[in-house]
Fold this sequence. Notes:
By secondary structure, this protein is mainly alpha-helical. The chain has one domain (2-118). The chain has helices at 2-28, 33-56, 63-90, 95-118.
Amino acid sequence: MKSFTKFIGIGGLATLLQYGLMIAFVEWLQIPEVLASAIAYGSSAVGNYLANYYWTFNSNKNHLNTFPKFVLVASAGLLLNTLIFYVLFRLDIHYMVAQIFATLVTLAFNFTAHKFWIYRK
């Protein structure tokens, strides 16, 4: 449970970054919402990887082993996030509400993949 709590903390910071970027992209730069969501998700992923590697899972595995797995999981998470966001947004759900739902689904997917595949002891 301790690693899940840390994962939520790191994920919360990454999510704040993601949401802040998405709002800036949509409101200030006028980037279409689905694209803004995807770019923001990808942008927050690098810090998320490093924080989870060193702090959440205290990994001692080589980055050559963990980083490719992370990229695969982050790509699958990006696809899942974008698909859920797209469907909800097309149903005329406000982009922030759509993002919250997409975040909750990808949270469960990401934690499972990180704990049992990327950083498995």
